[in-house]
Amino acid sequence: MVLRSYLFVPGDRPERFAKALASAAHQVVIDLEDAVSPDAKVAAREGLARWLASELSEGDKARVMVRVNAFGTVWHDDDVAMLREAALVNVMVPKAESAQQLDDIAARCSTGVALVALIESVAGVVQMRDIANAKPVARLAFGSFDYCVDAGIEGMGRELDTVRSAFVLESRHAGLPAPVDGVTLAIDDAARIVEDVALGRSFGFGGKLCIHPKQVDAVNSGFAPSEADKAWAQRVLDKLAQNPPGAFAVDGKLVDKPIIDRARRIAAKG
């Protein structure tokens, strides 16, 4: 399954966990970091551990991810130890800034851990190639707002074009899925989320971080191939099956290897 939507849920709001799982979000990200105040972090971790042990079904386990506190904070080691005890393998690492950090975290997690490296600083962007190629990293995600604060960038538009392209290029170079775009803070602005999804998709992102269930449907549909694209891809692949050697035409246009590759990618996205 292509994972497009990553829905954040505050780690100290256990009453929202099941509601988030009832949404159409592809991944529910229980957040022990920014969404939880320092004085509530220990209680949030302990509550999450109880929920993982007693209320999370095996069927839902693959949809749950936890964003731990950042490497080097006073809460980080205990967060990772709790996830190891729970045998949870989907982990989001905030403020990812080096491959060594990620390797260290993975070594302390359960076997088969898959890390989403949330890059949200200048240091992380500079180290992005090494991060993308770190063995435990399953995907890159863009912490766009934190990055802008760190870099001193005031806009969220074309000011980020270079960084967005870097995410896509480094993900492709490392053989990772298309990266996950940052959040849209506007919860009730349906047009804005559609616009932001379209922008991310145009750069080559494959999913988006969500801060409210209202955003999930727009993210899932916006990053999915359109019905027209899927129909075109199927026509190309059907014609390829009939004419495997050489170039051929579909809809009056020449089809060669790059076009075939595009059709296969569309078909794989479903």
From TrEMBL:
It comes from the Bacteria. Its cofactor is Mg(2+). Mg(2+) binds at E120, D146. Residues 4-213 form the HpcH/HpaI aldolase/citrate lyase domain. SUPFAM superfamilies: Phosphoenolpyruvate/pyruvate domain. Substrate binds at R67, E120. GO terms for biological process: oxaloacetate metabolic process. Keywords: Magnesium, Metal-binding. Pfam families: HpcH_HpaI (PF03328). GO terms for molecular function: catalytic activity; magnesium ion binding. PANTHER family: CITRATE LYASE SUBUNIT BETA, LYASE BETA SUBUNIT, PUTATIVE (AFU_ORTHOLOGUE AFUA_4G13030)-RELATED. This is HpcH/HpaI aldolase. It comes from Caballeronia humi. The lineage of its organism: Bacteria, Pseudomonadati, Pseudomonadota, Betaproteobacteria, Burkholderiales.
